[in-house]
Structures are given as C-alpha cells and as structure tokens.
Amino acid sequence: MWMPDRNNKKTLYEQIADHLEQRISYGEFPPGSLLPSERRLAEQLGVNRSTVISAFAELRSMGIIESRSGSGTRVSTSKWGATPKHTPNWSRYAEGGSFLPNLPFMRRIREALAQYPSLIDFASGELSADLAPTQEISSLMSKHEYTSYLGYDNPQGSIPLREALVDYLQQHRGIRTTESSILITSGSQQSLYLITQCLLSPGDAVAIEDPSYCYSLPMFQSAGLRLFRLPVDQDGVMPEDVRALYKKHRIKMVFLNPNFQNPTGTVLSSERRKRLLDIASELGLPIVEDDPFSLTSYEAAPPLPLKAMDNVGSVLYMGSFSKIAASGLRVGWMVAPHSIVERLADARQQMDFGLSIIPQQIAGQFLQSPLLLPHLDNLRMQLQFKRDLLMESLEKELSGLVEFVAPEGGLHLWCKLIPNIPEGKLLEESIKHGTVFVPGSVYGSDPGYVRFTFARAKLEQIAPGIAGFAKALRALMV
Amino acid sequence: MWMPDRNNKKTLYEQIADHLEQRISYGEFPPGSLLPSERRLAEQLGVNRSTVISAFAELRSMGIIESRSGSGTRVSTSKWGATPKHTPNWSRYAEGGSFLPNLPFMRRIREALAQYPSLIDFASGELSADLAPTQEISSLMSKHEYTSYLGYDNPQGSIPLREALVDYLQQHRGIRTTESSILITSGSQQSLYLITQCLLSPGDAVAIEDPSYCYSLPMFQSAGLRLFRLPVDQDGVMPEDVRALYKKHRIKMVFLNPNFQNPTGTVLSSERRKRLLDIASELGLPIVEDDPFSLTSYEAAPPLPLKAMDNVGSVLYMGSFSKIAASGLRVGWMVAPHSIVERLADARQQMDFGLSIIPQQIAGQFLQSPLLLPHLDNLRMQLQFKRDLLMESLEKELSGLVEFVAPEGGLHLWCKLIPNIPEGKLLEESIKHGTVFVPGSVYGSDPGYVRFTFARAKLEQIAPGIAGFAKALRALMV
C-alpha cells in the first residue's frame, strides 16, 4: 500500500496530489468517477485532513478534479475538450447486477478493520494467528515434494484429501461415507452458495435458525429465497416448528448449525436431533447441517451430527478447516448424495474452475499427520481460556448491564445488552474506543444483542477490548 | 478411488456388490435414487459388464435395489416397511436452481476423460505437465517460510501479489496500474462469473465474439443475458459491428479475447483496437478484455492490450496464470476502476470468502523470480513445436479434408472439416479411437468446426491422436 514518505523533500500534500494524479491517469478513477472522501483518504494515508484538502486543491487547480458541495469530489470530464468521449457509467454498473452487496454493518466493520489495524477485533469469525497451526503447515509444506501435476483439479476436489476426510469424518464425527460422496469446497461459504444457486429457485421458501449466521449472508436474498424463522432456545430449534413452517409455507430446505451455533453458541439436543430427522423423513425435507465448530468443544463432545444418524439420506453435511485450523487454507467439504455432489461440482467448475490443489494437498497431509490431535487439544484449551477471560471482563466491566450463557464450544459469545442503545451508534462509538464487534441485527435478531468473537483477538487484548466497549456503552447511556 | 481387488478371495461381483451396498448404506445413493448404469460402472471399475450385472442381481435378491426396464436401477424404498419414510426428491433438487448445468458436450468430454485415462486429450484448454513450471514452484515452496498469518485474505487478494503484478503488467503488457486497481481472482472463469453476476442484470444485452469461448459457459445464460454476435475474421472482430449492436440492442458490455482468440487463434489488429476504443468511448460502453494467451506468442508479440491504450477507463482487463504457468495454482487477476474492484471484491467475499493465500504467495514469488523468463521462453518454444507437429499430422492424415490457419500463439488450433459429419457422432467415434476434442458448436460456431488444443497432450501423443481422429472421421464418411 502506498503511503506518503515523511523524509521526502516534497511536502506531504504534493506527494498525495502526485499519487492521486497517477491513479487517475492509470484509470483507477476514470473521468467522472467519485474519489474517496477527504476524511477517508486522510485516515488511509495517516495524515491530517487539511493535508488532503491541500492535495485536492492542487488537483482542482490543474483541472484534474472537480468538487461540488454535497456531492463529493469527482475526476474531471472536461479535459476531453471538443471531442466528447464517454467513460462507462461505472457506478451504475456497480449498483446493478443480481448479486446483492454485503450488509452495511459488515462493510463498515471491514472498512474500520482495514483503516485502524490496532482495533481489537471481536467481529471476525476466525482464529488468531497463535491458534492456527502455522508451524505445522509450514513444516508440512517444506517437506513435501510438489512434483504432481499442477493442472485443473478433479471437479469434486483432490482425491487424496477426500480419502483422508473419509477417515477423519468417521473417527471424529461418526459419519460413515465414501470419497465419492464428498465435494471439496473453499469453505462453508462456498458450500452454502452452491446450494442456494443450484438446488433452490427464486421464490422458494427455506427455514433458518433465529438468530442465524445465514441472515448475515445477502446470498440468500440474492437467490430470491423467502426466509422463515426457527427460534433457537437453550437446546436449539424446536422440531415441531419445522413441520409448522412446512405446512404453512411449503419450505423446501432447512438450514441448521447444530453445534455451538453461530451466533448463540447453543447445542441442539440429542432428543431434538432425532425428532428433527423423523420430521424431515416424514416430509421428505432436506436438512443442510453446517458443522464448523464441533471439534472445538471445551469439555464434552456435542451429540452425533444429524448426518451420522440419517438413514434416509435427508442431510447435506458441511464442514471446514476454517474454525479448527486456518481460514486462509480455504478448504471445506460437503457430504451429500451422489446426484447432488455431481450437480454442485459441475456448477462450481463453471464459477471458478475448482480450487488450487496446493492447499488441498496440505490439508490432506495435516489430517493424516500426528500433528493434528495435539493441535486440536491445544486449540480447545486456548479457546476456553479466551472465553473465560471474555466472560470475566464482561462481568467486571458491565455487571448488571449484560446477560449471556457460557458457550461450551465454538468461537462466539452471544450477549444481551440491558440498556437500549441504537446499534449503529454503539458500533461507531465502540470503534472510537478501539473495539469492534458484530451487532445482533446482522443475525436477524431483535435489537439489543451483540456477538463477541473471542477467538480472533489476542489473549492480552480481551480485557482492554471489553473495557473499550464498556466505555462506549456507558458513554451512550447518559 | 475404490477398485475391485483381483487377488481377493471374494469374487469380483461379490466385492462390487459389497462396495455398492456400503455406498448405499452410507447415503451416497439414498432410497429411491438412480444408480449409475451397468455400462458406466463396468467402465469405472474396469470389469466386464456381466460382472456388474451379477453384482446387481445379488443386491436385487437382497431387496436393496430394484430395476425396472427402461428406467434403470434404483435403491429400494420398500425397506422402510410399515412406517413410511421419505427421502428428499434429490433428483428434482438437482434439476432445480437458477444456475444452469454445463453443456452436454462438455460433460461428456469430462466423463470420457475420467473414464479412460489413456485418451489423447485435445480438449482440455491447459498445459501438459512438462510445460508447467512444477520444479520452479516446488523449489519456491520448499524455500519459503510460511510464518505469515493464515487468516482470511484481503478481499482484493494478497497485497504482495498485487504489487508484483503492477510490475509484471507494466513490463510485459505495457499496462500502468496500481495495486489498489487489481482484484485477484481464481482465474478468468471467476472474473467472468463476477462480472456477469454483479455488473449485469437479467435481460441485459451483451456482445461476444463469434465463435467464442463465452458460448461454452452456461453462466451467461444463467445470468439471463441476451447474447449478440461479433463475427471474427483473420483480424478479429469488426469495430463497426459493436456500434450496430449498440444501436439495435443497446448492448451493455462487450467481451473480447483479442490475442490468439479462443478458439480461432486470431489476433485483433492494432488498427481495429484503436477504432474499438474510439467507439466504446463514444458510446460509454465497457469492454471486458480477456488476455490469457498474450505471453505465449511464438514469434512477434501481439499488439498492446486495449487496456494499455485506454485513456477513458472503458476497459476491464483480465489475465491469469492458467495458460502461462499452471492452471492448478488458480490465480488470476482483473484490473478495473476502483468502484468495480470494490463491488466485485465484496461479492466474491460472500461467494467463497476469498482465495487461499498460499498459492497467491507462490504466484507472487514466481513473478519476481529469475525463473520466470526462462520458463516463458521455453513454454513458447515448446508450444510452437507442438503446434507444428499438430499441423503436420493434420496435413499428413487429413489432407484435403481439413482447413485451418496457423495460430501464432496460444494453445488452440481451430479447424474446419470439409466432410459434413454430425458433431456428436464424430465425438463418440473419436473417443472410441482414443482421441477427444471439442466440437465447434460449443463455441457457438456453425457446424463443421473442431477445436484442437495442442498444449495438453504430450508431444509423442500428437501424431497418434490425430491418426485416431482421422480414422474416426473416415469411418463416418462412408
């Protein structure tokens, strides 16, 4: 990333003007397009806003940009002179398209994290660097001879990785399957995307948990699906609600995250799993079981997955490495009937021609390596430690103002706020105090909830992060 | 992949029956679902069809499967007995979804290549193993310390890779750009997918070359686009055709592959490039420039890309490693205005949460490595060698029956067949003779054309492959 050089003879504003002129001349900002605001540029470049204002003035005097009050600063179109030339109306193209943009809160969080690297991150649903098996992966990579053919991958994914997963799924999740029933994806995100694009049609009704990670995914709306809610209590969703939604709305599919649910952390009880499967088989209704967190249980392992108890073939099972090893590997999997695996593999080929085989080889080796079990043991211990620290900090800083149930696995704590504070204000105030989290409405919940991810922050950041959040909350309570 | 064991005490048909019973019990083939045909299973498992027939008979006698003449063999549903249980109607789900399946010819080719590993492959548009820089990549990997954080990637892709691409694009393609204008994708396939999903709406008209690789992509139909043709002659498309299509159909975007076009191998002339850009800027019309082959030129480099001459910001530029290094890396790029890069990066996050950083690191290192230029020199020489051998073989085997223009770069030769043979028959007959190619209609052309990819086959396979094709053609001429 380009940054102005404080040791340069040129002034900061001249450097910035030159830099912007270059980006404009290269076509990053074509004629007529909007430049980032002075405030945002100042934040990105680590300078005062007045410096950016001087740089803009310089570019304006050269006729390169134009500002109109209230509509921002744009690249001049007048420089074409007598011959009219037209840049495509890129902003209209960017607003078009059937695929919807991300939720504003999610974009704001991403932007804030990019702008302020020192923010304490309770928002990103991933592991911190010290929890990822970076050393293990590095050593597997350096030992391995990459002599195999680096051509396009098998449409279902690397065969050695699928074979390793057959053993892994049986040993760790009690799922008996074959390599030909497995589709390797880049993670649960892609698995869900393929399901919504290829197995459902616009107008189809589906049931999702309330609250649910799925609400944070505009992909469900982009696919034109009608979403119906299955409220979650301390034992997960109520099976009879599925039957009621089927009768009323003819739902075509049920999306569940039964273990340490995102965001609530709840575990679907064994008894409800059985009843859910009975109801699904009674109705011929498919269940999508997203199971990213089950190996992060701190004490007791969660019940067997629905897939392991499914003798009718109702369940599409999804898992990934993202929450138990490294999200940067981008390796996940689905276990599904043959016809579904073939359909999704074919569609994925068309969307991206499959995954790189290098991370798949590494993932397959890691699954079979003696390094896996010690890594998982350590991961569980460290996550529990972080969870405990988060809960202590919340009790210390916000006693009486928050309510939560301790999650027994996973990466997230779902927290009810007693004071009634608008979410957007709380998020902005919290960012000012150095902490970022995800507002509960992102998961479709009623107002007044927050999701804290305790896996991503460093251990020593948890207490100061919650202290910052508490300051923000209290500042808005007056 | 499971294969029967000829040294096992059990007979082959018993082993196959056990194996299928297991796959059925694990849910790969749920109750009511269709099993692969006897013929296909026999091919996959390398046994006589009579062996599969015996295995099916065994399973039928156990009540596990049911066959009805004309509708294939299905897994029994009757075993549920008195309590009715229902498997989701997976085949209906697999047929649903807004995303269309691949073209039948493409699926047939993929299936044939999977079934008969000895087929000589003139169909897959990629490099053979000996042309990929496997040694170079292996050595970069083993030397590199993967100590960096394996978290989710930057939404636009790895910053060091984008910085390396800024130098690469300037040096090799005369494109001046900045890392903030670059989006890393998994290849041109994903770049095109993002454009069709995010910048265009159902019903929009777009122009594509005729013939064109784009016709082979049902993603254009899946996005609901109306496709209009720009005929290609020896100098590429006619610029005035773009204006005519704009007037008549208000096309919203033009997709071009100006260098060694897939499938025809033609190069868009310099003069037409300039006129195209003039017309695009007159109409405010975006051009998508797909440039995967330009570094494979055997003699003279092709003209500068449109992007390098574009001073209005009309061009979205796409490139990738797939055709110049290794498709298995899954690393490509787009250069685009800022607003477009942000929009596509946001959508890609939602679809698959970005790429693995490992192949991106390797690709960035390879771009900056002294190994790159010798690799490219060797690649060009070897490709030219393979092209020459293909042309010699065609002239020797099919003199007077085929016509073609020698491509001066790229991986493909576009070949007109003089005899009038139905494409499907020719493909099947050719597979029987050990050779596979892509029928021209896949690229939207008139009947009577074939695309031969000469990069994928081994050097010593080219002559026998064309001999097999010639036998198939002659067999159908009688």
Helical residue percent band of chain A: 40-55%
Shape descriptor of chain A reads globular
Q: Assess the beta-strand content of chain A as a share of residues.
A: 5-15%
Mean pLDDT of chain A: 92
Strand order of the largest sheet of chain A: 4-11-10-9-8-5-6-7
Please name the CATH topology of the largest domain in chain A. Answer: Aspartate Aminotransferase, domain 2
Number of strands of chain A: 16
Content-based structural category of chain A: alpha/beta
- Catalogue the unreliable spans of chain A: none
How many whole angstroms does the radius of gyration of chain A measure?
A: 25 Å
Instruction: Name the CATH superfamily assignment of the largest domain in chain A.
Output: Type I PLP-dependent aspartate aminotransferase-like (Major domain)
Oligomer: homodimer
CATH class of the largest domain in chain A: Alpha Beta
Write out key terms for the chains shown.
homodimer, 478 residues, alpha/beta, Arc Repressor Mutant, subunit A, Aspartate Aminotransferase, domain 1, Aspartate Aminotransferase, domain 2, 3 domains, 8-stranded mixed sheet, 16 strands
Word description of this protein:
The structure is a homodimer of 478-residue chains. By secondary structure, chain A is α/β, with parallel strands linked by helices. The first copy, chain A, has three domains: 12-95, Arc Repressor Mutant, subunit A; 104-131 and 374-477, Alpha-Beta Complex (Aspartate Aminotransferase, domain 1); 145-370, Type I PLP-dependent aspartate aminotransferase-like (Major domain) (Aspartate Aminotransferase, domain 2, 3-Layer(aba) Sandwich), CATH 3.40.640. In chain A, 43% of the residues lie in helices and 13% in strands. Chain A has 17 helices and 16 strands. In chain A, the strands form four sheets. An eight-stranded mixed sheet of chain A has the order 4-11-10-9-8-5-6-7, with helices on both faces. Chain A has a four-stranded antiparallel sheet with strand order 12-13-16-15. In chain A, helix 1 crosses helix 3. The longest helix of chain A is centred in the last third of the chain and has 27 residues, at 372-398. The radius of gyration of chain A is 25 Å and the shape is globular. The mean pLDDT of chain A is 92. Chains A and B meet through helix 1, helix 4, helix 6, helix 8 and helix 11 of A and helix 1, helix 4, helix 6, helix 8 and helix 11 of B.
